[in-house]
Design a protein that fits this description.
The complex is a heterodimer of chains A (188) and B (572).
Chain A (H helix, E strand, L loop, with lengths): L1 H30 L10 E4 L2 E5 L36 H17 L23 E2 L1 H5 L2 H8 L3 H11 E2 L10 E3 H12 L1
Antiparallel strand pairs in A: 1-2, 3-5, 4-5
Chain B lengths: L2 H29 L9 H11 L9 H24 L16 H12 L9 H4 L2 H31 L9 H25 L11 E4 L5 E4 L5 H9 L20 H25 L3 H27 L3 H5 L17 H14 L14 H13 L8 H21 L4 E2 L2 E2 L2 H31 L17 H16 L14 H31 L15 H35 L1
Helix pairs in contact in B: 1-9, 1-12, 2-7, 3-4, 3-6, 3-17, 4-17, 6-7, 6-8, 6-17, 7-8, 8-9, 9-10, 9-12, 10-12, 10-13, 10-18, 12-13, 13-16, 13-18, 14-15, 14-17, 14-18, 15-16, 15-17, 16-17, 16-18
Classes of the chains: A mainly alpha (188), B mainly alpha (572).
Chain lengths: 188, 572
Amino acid sequence: MKKYIFQSIRLTLVLLVLLGVIYPLIIAFAGRFAKGEGNGEAVLLNGKKVGYANIGQSFTEPQYFWGRPSAANYNAAGSAGSNKGPSNVDYLKDVENRIDTLLKYNPGLKRSDIPADLVTASGSGLDPDISVQAAIIQIKRVANVRNLSLEQVQQVVKNATTPPLLGLLGPEKVNVLQLNLSLDRLSK
Amino acid sequence: MNTELLGIITTYLITLLIGIPLGIYLAKVFAGEKVWTDFLLPIEKIIYRLSGIRQTEQMNWKQHMKAMLTINSVWLIYGFFVLINQDKLPLNPDGNPGQTPDLAFNTIISFVVNCNLQHYSGESGLTYFTQHFIIMFLQFVSAATGIASAVVLFKAFREKSVSQLGNFWEFFVKSITRLLLPLSIVVALILTFNGTPSSYEGKDQYISLQGDTIAVSRGPAAAMIAIKHLGTNGGGWFGVNSSHPLENPNYLTNMVELIAQVIIPIAMVIAFGYFIRRKKLGWIIFGVMTFGMLLLLIPTISSELGGSPAIAQLGVSQHTGAMEGKEVRFGPAASAYWSTVTTIISTGSVNSMHDSTMPLTGALQLLGMMINSFYGGCGVGILNYFIYLIIAVFISGLMVGRTPEFLGHKVEAREVKIAALITLLSPFLILAGTAAASYVFGNYGDADWAVKPANWLNNPGFHGFSEMLYEITSANANNGSGFEGLGDNNIFWNISSGIVLIFSRFLPIIGPIAIAGLLGQKKYIPESAGTLRADTITFGIMTLAVIVVLTALSYFPALALGPLAEYFTMLK
């Protein structure tokens, strides 16, 4: 028994060095050659950091495309889903309010054209993407506010759309930050 | 074909392409046969020498279990004290506080037992020091504990009659050097080059397009996320686990993380057959497990792609499926697949919030954890399945009126008693635990704890009950996922789930090893025409029937009160 205790302690110490020091340092070293040097990929506008490519931001102003509702208010210091169950009555009221807001800011929009992702909270609260349909229904509003033609905005949406992996696997998506950045660049 | 469905089918096929050869390789590694990774032998010898281990020393099943329990106890004590004092230790750029004793109790047990139930959020509840030297360290060694224990069981059936079953430390070290560490390096590199942070920088700040000042949590996450999946651990770097865009940046990383968590559980099943030189038995077990997985997976996908009936009533389009708690880059199909995989094997990582999935999906997630052996966790999956095998052997023996035998050894009263006790343990812990929680919630709502029982639940009605049932079930399965709406960081949940965790980890390891050890010592009886063979399809179906009947009898009432009741109320 005593033998096992000493062996356990010594083995633990050896493995702490191997798994807790050597292994992550190898990865950290390799990470310096990745995009963003292992710090996460930052996005710049006129040389200033305005966000991270993978992390969604809160967009509420009408000249921007809106992202998904967030239970974390897009505060990336933390992360959170709503954890609301599907039959929760208060939750369904929240969804109804979000639909009303969309209808108010996008005149002429039909309920049945609103995709669910635009009125439901994401898992992380930091979802950077929306579905293509969610972008399409906002084109008219954004074009009006910015005095751009529909075709111009449509083109911007097209450019910010990522197809499925290899064109075959998984969903299509639109990165909202990338979309809005291109708009800001276009408006200048 | 729909790209979302094609995505999950491709993911599963790649899993098989890697998992099956990996199993054949593992059988050779643990049998001591020549393999191409033998160049690592010198490193292993250094590890043995520094630890004072003679890896040729043979152990019987009891010595194996003593060694296993001893080293696990060392980790429990070490981790508890470090977690409490993490604020005073280095590598804490965000200035996070030490854990409270009850939280540290829960956290350390949870990670030692390979569960990774997290009652804290990674961004604020841990430091880079504890993320590395407690969490990530334990993710390796707890997985290796499971794998090494399973190999002890394999050993008992390789030869005709044995009591010496190899050396625990050797199996344990090899699980790390020949399997977990090399694969982790590969997965971590893929993650890093797809945008997961790997540096030691603390929080960053920027001003968003709309002018908000935002802080972003970061840190050396990639290394941990690799082993969290390979070792079926599941504990995330960030609070929302693999739905976080830095923890799981795109569809490719999602596929990699999904593949990583399933390959070792599948490999262990194949390895069992090859190791004991009864390949067919391995394939039959694999077949039953795969069939069981499909029984859970197909309705899950259908219920998530179908969308929420309540949202449908609001008149919006759910053309992709139910989206609450899910990320657009994965979509409902990959989220549904993940939720099945993470609950049948004991990973418990999530890429969508299970609390917000459809009621039927929730029921199927719970069932996956209650059965806990369709592939199952690293090493422990096959151990859990072994118990069902023994019960099936026993019942079949009764049906045909012969002394039951398994692989040429008589299964007698003692072995069956152990199997029966282990089978009863899960329903006892789950049902008693949930009952206790419901009682406290109902009668002591104002108790002065960090979260008052009256405020535990994030959802009313049946769904609220499901939140409590899910938490205890997840603890019992050493799974670690949660209906995360539950306010679980308080003394009740920290202590109760901690106790459930420790029993539900070690007894279901010791039980099967004891049975295997006892059986292996018995005289070998050659097979004859009257032998009930374990490696037949008939016996595979019998085992599946045993699993279905036991699970239904144990859990149907609890499921009826939670997810099933919610499902039927939503129908009207």
